[in-house]
């Protein structure tokens, strides 16, 4: 028993130190993007031997490269957010919140629900987790930054909306001639990957339940909530015809049914595959069907755009960073350094770590894969490493360091009304725990394969 108390004290001390350190020194998400830009600029000049003008050119050339992918990411967020704000989904989340009788139950329930939602779709999970955390904060005396961090901890999970395994499983992808088609049964739905997913869920729950609430807990800041103004009954007397149409049910119902019909036809008669575009359309259809009218839908969309403003503004900055890292050869040099010391058994683990480091500078799975993926897959085949394991190692690495990269937490923080400093202290410790679990899994799987 004394051993367990000492271990609990050590974990609490580590977490408290991390929280205090982050609150004191972590810059804002936008400022971090600026600082990373400067760091990569100096690396390109100092390590790659590029001139400042050349690095500026690389940054400018990269600035617009991810506009299309960035728009997809924004739409994933907006459609997922709007769906989470629909009356039915909010009622379901409120009903879940009523099941919690205390802080520990609130934290555990928030983790499990948000983790499952993240697994299905990161945009929906981020918003659903934040809204559930807010609902718990209203009903339970829980340290609000702690439960928001717990809601975000599941963001690292890689599920059916993970872009990299889906791309590799799609005929005609840009690397098909080199690696062929690798089905999701060998990547996302392999036995070992499902086991890793469940292990991370268990560890996430244990870690956050291990945390003690501070003596002076930070409660949710209650504010006037106008989120349901467009959902309430509206007196249509005296409205103009256009206003009546705005608050009519049939326009959104028609559009929702049209989108749903297309999706059903795509999957039933044409054997369509799940990708970012179909996920966006799926959430759009559900959101249109579940909101009462176009006024309600656009009111929720306005909140979604506000919550996602960080992504909208910062995505081009990270595209510029990606341009500098790619055109200066920094990504290639870093990847080649990893490959030089790799063996067939260690390559998936090193790929995971390599992807995690690069992801901190290029927090975009699809964009990072387009830059770094061909190099790593060519090396995997040359070394005789398992290609499916390499793909999933890259995929997990891409999500792992999102825990300490505030970029993807911006929508959740926008919904919760917190800053990155409030939650990152907990997430740094969780980064270490999850990193050990993921690394250990790849070591074991490589040894057994």
UniProtKB/TrEMBL annotation:
Keywords: Membrane, Transmembrane, Transmembrane helix. The chain crosses the membrane at residues 25-45, 66-86, 106-133, 192-210, 250-268, 274-290, 311-331, 337-362, 427-448. GO terms for cellular component: plasma membrane. It comes from the Bacteria. Signal peptide: none annotated. InterPro entries: SCFA_transpt_AtoE. It holds the Pfam family SCFA_trans. This is TIGR00366 family protein. It comes from Ectopseudomonas toyotomiensis.
């Amino acid at each position: 028993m004394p051993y367990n108390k000492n271990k609990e004290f050590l974990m609490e001390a580590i977490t408290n130190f991390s929280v205090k350190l982050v609150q004191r020194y972590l810059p804002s998400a936008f400022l971090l993007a600026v600082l990373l830009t400067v760091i990569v600029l100096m690396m390109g000049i100092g390590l790659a031997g590029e001139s400042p003008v050349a690095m500026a050119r690389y940054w400018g050339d990269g600035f617009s490269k991810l506009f299309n992918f960035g728009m997809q990411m924004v739409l994933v967020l907006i459609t997922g957010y709007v769906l989470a704000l629909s009356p039915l989904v909010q009622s379901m989340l409120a009903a879940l919140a009523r099941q919690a009788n205390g802080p520990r139950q609130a934290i555990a329930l928030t983790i499990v629900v948000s983790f499952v939602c993240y697994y299905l779709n990161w945009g929906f999970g981020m918003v659903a987790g934040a809204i559930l955390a807010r609902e718990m904060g209203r009903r339970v005396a829980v340290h609000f930054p702690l439960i928001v961090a717990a809601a975000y901890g599941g963001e690292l999970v890689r599920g059916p909306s993970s872009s990299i395994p889906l791309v590799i499983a799609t005929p005609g992808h840009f690397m098909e001639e080199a690696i062929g088609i690798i089905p999701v049964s060998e990547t996302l739905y392999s036995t070992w990957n499902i086991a890793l997913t469940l292990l991370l869920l268990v560890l996430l729950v244990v870690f956050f339940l291990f945390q003690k609430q501070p003596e002076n807990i930070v409660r949710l800041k209650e504010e006037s909530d106008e989120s349901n103004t467009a959902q309430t009954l509206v007196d249509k007397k005296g409205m103009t015809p256009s206003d009546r149409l705005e608050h009519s049910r049939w326009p959104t119902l028609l559009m929702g049914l049209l989108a749903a019909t297309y999706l059903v036809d795509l999957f039933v008669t044409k054997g369509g595959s799940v990708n970012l575009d179909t996920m966006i359309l799926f959430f759009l259809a559900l959101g249109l069907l579940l909101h009462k009218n176009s006024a309600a839908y656009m009111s929720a969309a306005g909140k979604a755009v506000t919550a996602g403003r960080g992504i909208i503004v910062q995505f081009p900055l990270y595209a510029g960073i990606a341009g500098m890292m790619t055109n200066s050869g920094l990504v290639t040099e870093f990847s080649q350094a990893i490959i030089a010391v790799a063996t067939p058994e260690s390559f998936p683990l090193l790929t995971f770590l390599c992807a995690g480091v690069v992801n901190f500078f290029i927090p975009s799975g699809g964009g990072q894969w387009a830059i770094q993926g061909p190099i790593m897959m060519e090396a995997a085949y040359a070394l005789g490493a398992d290609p499916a394991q390499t793909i999933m190692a890259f995929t997990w690495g891409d999500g792992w360091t999102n825990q300490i990269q505030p970029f993807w937490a911006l929508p959740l923080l926008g919904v919760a009304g917190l800053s990155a400093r409030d939650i990152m202290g907990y997430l740094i410790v969780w980064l270490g725990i999850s990193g050990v679990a993921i690394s250990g899994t790849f070591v074991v799987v490589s040894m057994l394969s």
